[in-house]
Design brief:
Radius of gyration: 15 Å
Largest sheet: 6 strands, parallel
Order of helices and strands: EHEHEEEHEHEHEEEH
Shape: globular
Distance between the termini: 26 Å
Length: 174
Amino acid sequence: VNTDIFKKTDDEANNDKFNALCVARNSPRKNIPALLEAWSIFSKDKDDVLLTLNMVPNDPYGHDLNIIVEAFGISDTVEFSADCIAPGRLSSVEALARNYNMADIHILPTAAEGFGIPIMEASACSTPNIVTDYSACSELVPDDCGIKVDFNGFGYGEWCGKRAIIDGPALADS
């Protein structure tokens, strides 16, 4: 992680809102539907929260997130970052660093993670993380620097074998 770019700045989004951010590719192992379920529980009856998804909502290898957002009735509290211009591509790393700095929290509910670069980028910007307590995520988030959410067991994914299954309501409680 380039700490000349990913560092704490004075960038702030709307101070009137709690701003959550998820930086990930929209793919099945990233567990974005569980995040959206959790967000629907967390954001219920709140008008001062915003979840920014730094991903393409209709990645050909992922879910149609617009449909899921609509199904959970959370379109007024979820936005897709304009800085994500194609699956896995951003307009600039500076824009990504700005997104981390404007967030109050970064959430990565991944079902399997090789390394977890977004966790490191968020940490470099002093943005706390909520992560699945599994694979690389557990190692990258010390107990005093974020929240690790327990998972419900394992499933087996189409592309990457063993995956942690996270519970949406448990994530919402975090």
